[in-house]
Write a structure and sequence with these properties.
By secondary structure, this protein is α+β, with helices and mostly antiparallel strands. It contains four helices and eight strands.
């Protein structure tokens, strides 16, 4: 019996303004071929940036994404008044808060694969959270490991 296989794929996300976005279909469409034939495995998504995040969360009610963004903005305030609450502000008042939010949320998620499909729960989806004001090009490195059928 052959051992597990490993493949990596570079994914590009569309540029999003600040906010929380459901990207499950973006991920599955870009990985449809590589996921085929994986009987049991794991998809690891790694966001190659320090001012945005990835999460698994509610996939049905878009208000949850809005509430999450609003809540993170209340937890990690931006220094729009220039009071000097952060030392790192070279790229703007949203820069350091974006790094803090990225650390709180994280830059990666792992999802089981069963019979070529992501084994997400009923209400789970893959979220991309953009913490910067301007639109940025974001990349995800996807690693698929698993037993092939």
């Amino acid at each position: 019996m052959p051992g597990p296989t490993y493949t990596q794929h570079a994914l590009n996300l569309p540029s999003y303004p600040r906010g929380s976005y459901l990207i499950t279909s973006d991920i599955t469409s870009q990985l449809s071929e590589p996921l085929k034939g994986v009987k049991a495995g794991l998809l690891h998504l790694f966001l190659q940036h320090t001012s945005c995040g990835l999460s698994l969360n509610e996939n049905w009610d878009s208000d949850v994404r809005k509430d999450m963004s609003d809540s993170l903005d209340r937890i990690v305030v931006e220094d729009k008044a220039g009071k000097g609450i952060y030392r790192h502000d070279a790229e703007g008042s949203d820069d350091m808060p974006a790094h803090i939010k990225s650390s709180l949320i994280g830059a990666s998620v792992s999802i089981p694969i069963t019979d070529g499909k992501l084994a997400l729960g009923t209400w789970q989806g893959i979220w991309f959270l953009e913490f910067r004001e301007g639109k940025h090009r974001r990349k995800i490195l996807a690693t698929i490991q698993g037993e092939r059928a």
